[in-house]
Amino acid sequence: MKLVSSREFNQDVSAVKRLARSEPVFITDRGRPTHVLMSIQDFRRFSGERDNILDLLAWPGADQVALTPADRWGR
Question: Rounded to whole angstroms, what are the CA distances from 73 to 7, 55, 58?
């Protein structure tokens, strides 16, 4: 867990976003945690959200994937 002040966050948002790729980042205001920044993968895992078939099919380039019959049935 990383702690970043609101001032540090405002000065370099990109750096804090990079930190959040590997672990949640707590953003503090006057020394007290007020927000948490985390990757979307961590958020989905935390919230219990799972990809559904419609989400997977909506990915850009999904229509370009060629599957053999064995791939289609997971064999």
Answer: 52, 19, 20
